[in-house]
Specification:
2 domains, Aspartate Aminotransferase, domain 1, seven-stranded mixed sheet, Aspartate Aminotransferase, domain 2, about 15% strand, alpha/beta, two-stranded parallel ribbon, binds 4'-deoxy-4'-aminopyridoxal-5'-phosphate
């Protein structure tokens, strides 16, 4: 049986990680993999997470199964974190999932179950796993214009023209904040225009929010998601706790189905629980429990927010530093977009051969589409990167 299996193309980012490891140069710089790193290159465990783990170790007296939807307290805490008071609590059905990826996967399966002929519109570019999972599930993918390769901002006119071609029951996948891989995001006026198009077409929004708190702040980063959720009859939200709680390997995420039809909440909740049951039964609990403890304890929450704010500001400082260096070296403002982008990533918007030249000549590793992880930089490496970018002629 196994002889029929086919080799799959290597995952670009994982292959890049290996190349970086194998590179003997001391001064190499890793801007590839999508994890936050502090100035020393470490991905630390957040203080509040450590404290919650300590308390959990002391107080947890059983590891018996939770519910199929995970602990309801996790849902309550996460619905409040993502949606605030945008929609009534009883408009939201939700399940804990293994990471944001689990939430994305379950959302796609729900869509396929409810509307087998739905097309899923994704930004061009988007997180590659969106397309990969949709292909794997045999779902139709339509790409909408998103990144303007001249300005390195959002091609909003192109995006709107493409979204208008959606039909009722199609799904429009949006990044809640800190777009991966581009770093270019919608402002609230643009979100409002997207809402109007959703209402005109009858397409259903699905929002993937994996970096809340990494952009403009916890509340600000959720503003687009909240606007959509409060304006349309139905939407799906996949949220990840991997980045903003720094608990990548704990696999903590949540899928929410928001519906103005409150009478249908039980059906939605039962369907989400059914999907969990089919795929992995009970979702992982450890990370979800830490998140719940942090969000519901005043002092843990304050400490988490303070540390998250430090993380956010450190990335903004690096962005500004890099934009300033490039401004000085190139004598032009064309790299100003780096300070405008938000989140961990920026798409430099350059060619694969320049990305290769940066790697081979300078030991600077970024993803082939020229996505850089800003958190891979520090005050010493910013000028080195700026010099290299100018030298290779970006
Ligand atoms: N969505 C987007 C846009 C992401 O960038 C990521 C993380 N790379 C995820 C979802 C999923 O993250 P995780 O499964 O690690 O929680």
């Amino acid at each position: 049986m196994f002889e029929t299996l086919k080799a799959r193309p290597a995952d670009g980012i994982l292959a890049l990680m290996q190349m970086f490891k194998d590179d003997p140069r001391d001064n190499k710089i890793d801007l590839g993999v999508g994890v936050y790193k502090d100035a020393t290159g470490l991905t630390p465990i957040m203080r509040a997470v450590k404290a919650a783990e300590h308390t959990l170790w002391e107080t947890q007296d059983s590891k018996v199964y939770t519910g199929l939807a995970g602990d309801p307290a996790f849902s309550d805490a996460m619905v409040a974190l993502v949606l605030g008071s945008a929609v009534p609590r009883d408009a939201v059905a939700s399940v804990a999932t293994p990471g944001g990826t689990g939430a994305v996967r379950q959302a796609f399966e729900l869509i396929r179950m409810a509307r087998p002929d739905a097309r899923v519109f994704v930004s061009d570019p988007t997180w590659p796993n969106h397309v990969s999972i949709l292909n794997y599930l045999g779902m139709e993918v339509v790409r909408y214009r998103y990144f303007d390769s001249e300005t390195r901002g959002v091609d909003f006119d192109g995006m709107m023209a493409d979204l208008k071609t959606a039909r009722a029951g199609d799904v429009i996948l949006l990044h809640g904040c800190c777009h991966n891989p581009t770093g270019a995001n919608l402002n609230l006026t643009e979100w409002q225009a997207v809402v109007e198009t959703l209402l005109e077409t009858g397409a259903v929004p699905m929002i993937d929010i994996a970096y809340q708190g990494f952009g403009d702040g916890l509340e600000e980063d959720a503003a687009g998601t909240r606007l959509v959720a409060s304006s349309v009859p139905e939407c799906l939200i996949a949220a990840s706790c991997s980045k903003n709680f720094g608990i990548y390997r704990e696999r903590t995420g949540i899928l929410m189905a928001v519906s103005a039809n409150k009478g249908a909440r039980k059906l939605h909740q039962d369907t989400l629980a059914f999907l969990n049951r089919q795929n992995y039964s009970f979702p992982p609990d450890h990370g979800a429990r830490l998140v719940t403890m942090i969000l519901t304890d005043e002092s843990l929450r304050a400490d988490w927010q303070a540390e998250l704010e430090d993380v956010r500001l450190s990335m903004l400082t690096l962005r500004q530093h890099l934009a300033d260096e490039l401004q000085q070296l190139s004598g032009s403002d064309r790299f100003g977009f780096l300070a405008q982008h938000r989140g961990m990533f920026s798409l430099l918007g350059t060619t694969p051969d320049r990305v290769q030249a940066l790697r081979e000549q300078n030991g600077i590793y970024m993803v082939g589409d020229s996505r850089m992880n800003i958190a891979g930089l520090n005050a010493q490496t910013v000028p080195i990167l700026a010099r290299a970018i100018v030298d290779v002629g970006v």
